[in-house]
Amino acid sequence: MASVQSKGKGLIFIISAPSGTGKTTLVKRVMEDVPGLRFSVSYTTRPPRAGEQEGEDYHFVSPAVFQEMVKRGEFLEWAEVLGSRYGTPRVDLKVLAAEGIDLILDIDTQGAKKVREKMESPVLIYLLPPSLEDLEDRLVKRDLDSPDRIKFRMANAQKDMKEARRYHYVIVNDRIEEAAEKLKAIILAERGRNRKQSILEKRRKKRNRNHGMVHRKNLRKIQLLGLYHPHDDRFLWDRR
Length: 240
Ligand code: ADP
Ligand code: 5GP
Known about the structure:
By secondary structure, the chain is α/β, with parallel strands linked by helices. It has one domain (4-195): P-loop containing nucleotide triphosphate hydrolases (Rossmann fold), CATH 3.40.50.300. The chain has helices spanning 23-33, 63-71, 93-99, 109-118, 132-142, 147-161, 176-224; strands spanning 12-16, 37-39, 42-44, 58-60, 75-81, 84-89, 102-106, 123-128, 169-172, 228-229, 234-235. Strands 2-7-1-8-9 form a five-stranded parallel beta sheet, with helices on one face. The radius of gyration is 24 Å and the shape is elongated. The model has no long low-confidence stretch (mean pLDDT 89).
């Protein structure tokens, strides 16, 4: 597929998956090809893994700092995941729209639920591993967790995947190139839908403005012609 040329305008894409499925790999790949996308950098109390950059992968903070941020209401949502805390900083959709940016949130299913309650229409995408065996294999090959930790992640994965049915889209991350094409297609389609809605909204506003001008300038004339009914504030052409 050709790269996605059109830019975004304040959409929120949420990607969830069991740890080790390939969210980070997939999101990084898609962001290289799609303009107008920004990754929302979460705050976490877990220590950085080898290769992770402060401010790029996460903001790594102590539990005390995280708690202060919770108290000050600095998070759009936060949750405890696999024994650590993770929080999404607040989002200003108007600023994003003005900049022509859409936001990608890599958050767990609890966080997705909270964002869905707070924001107007986030797009929810769930990423599945081809099988549980593949997931375990990826966690082992990633080589970041102890065998006990991998067992813990696998137990959580089975619970987590039940939530997939609440998402708008499901992508199976079998071959990474195919999964990336599917994610790009979703982003492009959702941008098209959003653009249609904003065009319709602009038209509606314009129609209302025109309607107001008729009202002010020609109301008396229109009323005399029997086209305006003052008793129920209605023009002949208004549909009920
Ligand atoms: P997550 O962010 O979901 O925890 P990662 O992006 O860290 O997962 O990926 C976990 C491991 O799986 C990494 O070693 C990554 O290189 C590998 N991986 C990701 N996608 C695929 C894929 N489609 N096929 C095989 N391995 C993959
Ligand atoms: P990891 O430690 O493997 O990077 O992430 C563990 C889990 O925490 C993943 O499921 C990831 O999506 C989730 N996560 C990362 N950031 C946030 C966040 O800000 N909020 C919530 N609720 N979950 C997050």
